[in-house]
């Protein structure tokens, strides 16, 4: 029996550990090396595996590439095979954020229509390390530094402990020809600059283990976040007397959670907003209401934090 190439074995093992015993899963596949290696492994390991590719219609020939990928997937035995075409025009945020939002909506819709229990995403250890560096650059707190979760709802990331180099090697070993997205090397995007310059510089200065160590840090911080969120949920209150005796870490998580419940969009809710809410509790001197994203105002009224009508 021919020996399985190590990179192929590494990707398959990661997918085998993640896949459920039964139920349909969809692989989100762009045709890049990471998602293509993920798709091939899921098809080899899984019993019921479909594939969905999203055409953002942002590049010339994108529809043709999506069709070619769908043809390959059907021939490889994926069922169902779905092409989702989306529009990013008119969405809030920059083009990267708009495309991401449209993509996740399309993937969620495909899962709902097919009854899939999970959508597999091809993010690797390197993607996780890049995410942590970007979060550090933004001055993000523990939520940002925890990186991408291995599971969030129907979205699962089996390859977070697999190196990007191994997905490329796996594709080469299996005779698969990945598509190289030009956006991934466009210096207009911060992640592309981190990928091309910042992370390689860290590897050169600190050694190759820095990538795995950044990803491991995200995993450890995520575990701490989970416990702190549990404690914050148990202590939830908008009564100033209750909030004032909480530790700062728990109190600010309570305030962050409450702001989200009020309708503040998570992507726009920043440390600055939560700190202003915290000041209503810990530095009260009669100040006016705090303005949150989404047109929400919060004030302190007779010892209670309230939304201003």
TrEMBL record:
Protein name as catalogued: tRNA(Ile)-lysidine synthase
tRNA(Ile)-lysidine/2-thiocytidine synthase N-terminal domain ranges (all copies): 25-196
Function: Ligates lysine onto the cytidine present at position 34 of the AUA codon-specific tRNA(Ile) that contains the anticodon CAU, in an ATP-dependent manner. Cytidine is converted to lysidine, thus changing the amino acid specificity of the tRNA from methionine to isoleucine.
Top EC category: ligase
Domain of life: Bacteria
NCBIfam families xref list: lysidine_TilS_N
Organism: Paractinoplanes hotanensis
Domain named tRNA(Ile)-lysidine synthase substrate-binding: residues: 240-304
SUPFAM superfamilies: Adenine nucleotide alpha hydrolases-like, MesJ substrate recognition domain-like
InterPro entries: Rossmann-like_a/b/a_fold, TilS/TtcA_N, tRNA_Ile_lys_synt, tRNA_Ile_lys_synt_N, tRNA_Ile_lys_synt_subst-bd
